[in-house]
Design brief:
Elements: E1 6-10, E2 17-18, H1 20-30, H2 33-57, H3 63-77, H4 84-92, E3 98-99, H5 103-111, E4 116-122, H6 126-135, E5 146-151, H7 162-171, E6 182-186, H8 189-197, E7 201-205, E8 224-226, H9 229-233, H10 235-244
Parallel strand pairs: 1-4, 1-6, 4-5, 6-7, 7-8
Antiparallel strand pairs: 2-3
Bound molecules: 2-acetamido-2-deoxy-beta-D-glucopyranose (2 copies).
């Protein structure tokens, strides 16, 4: 990896790909919009909670399993039942997610920038992540922008465990003393704080426009904040932020 290149690692779900279509499909299965939205919110909450609990317990299960198991928890809590076939359909929906509207212009400008090495960096399993990238109608034509897809499978820990970000560094040919040469781009505040905590730069995509609220370690803040990916990955924005830091 050329030493002078800026490495930008993109989180996948919730950053490049929107999982909004899954809630829509859920609505078709459980019948009511309100119930679907309640289940989708609980599903996402347990999906995150399970990964953090597994980290705390020193246990690991694949992100595919975590996603499936957290769905059963969310369904049970709402007194909803789905047939196994329907659950398979929802899991399959991860293979046809749409990008957020700001993603493609940003990736197009990145593709034209030889000073940047872009990678996907996700806690999904290798097969889940490559299916999501290569089967997404929006994202697959741009898959060539990404030099690599780094996943946590081999680390057997989830973000924001420091090992996960060090694994990224290793894959990118960086030492732990060079974490500041790498950028994380994510829409997930816990991921941003995890990256800052090990010395990476981090760009937070604040699509909802709510502003930074996370205070787990108040001194750890995003390096830059953008309302969309296009604002963040413009070469000027990155180089400007690099000068500031
Ligand atoms: C995932 O779940 C399946 C089915 O319950 C199980 O057989 C498998 O061992 C799980 N994978 C891991 C890594 O625990
Ligand atoms: C806990 C955790 O890290 N969750 C993330 C796992 O990765 C997916 C895909 O990048 C994100 O959507 C989750 O937020």
């Amino acid at each position: 990896m050329a030493a002078n290149k800026t490495i930008i690692a993109f989180d996948l779900y919730g950053t490049l790909l929107s999982t909004g279509s899954i809630a829509k499909q859920l609505e078709g299965l459980v019948g009511s919009e309100q119930k679907a939205s309640q289940i989708a919110t609980a599903w996402r909450k347990y999906q995150l909670e399970y990964t953090w609990r597994l980290n705390s317990m020193g246990q690991f299960d694949t992100f595919f399993n975590v996603t499936r198991n957290s769905l059963s928890h969310a369904l049970a809590e709402s007194n909803a039942e789905l047939r196994n076939e329907d659950i398979d359909v929802l899991m399959k929906a991860y293979d046809s997610l749409s990008t957020f509207p700001d993603v493609i212009p940003a990736l197009t400008s990145l593709a034209a920038n030889p000073d940047i090495t872009a990678v996907v960096f996700s806690n999904g399993t290798q097969s889940m992540v490559s299916n999501s990238v290569f089967h997404s109608k929006d994202l697959s034509p741009h898959a060539g922008v990404f030099h690599d897809m780094v996943t946590v499978d081999s680390v057997k820990k989830y973000k924001p465990a420091p090992e996960v970000y060090f694994h990224l560094a290793e894959k990118m040919g960086k030492q732990q003393s060079q974490m500041g040469d790498m950028w994380l781009v994510s829409g997930n505040p816990f991921d941003i704080v995890g990256a800052r905590s090990v010395g990476m730069k981090a760009a937070w995509v604040d699509r909802a426009g709510h502003g930074w609220q996370d205070a787990v370690m108040p001194e750890l803040q995003p390096t830059v904040i953008g309302a969309g990916l296009d604002e963040i990955t413009l070469p000027q924005a990155v180089s400007h932020a690099m000068e500031l830091n």
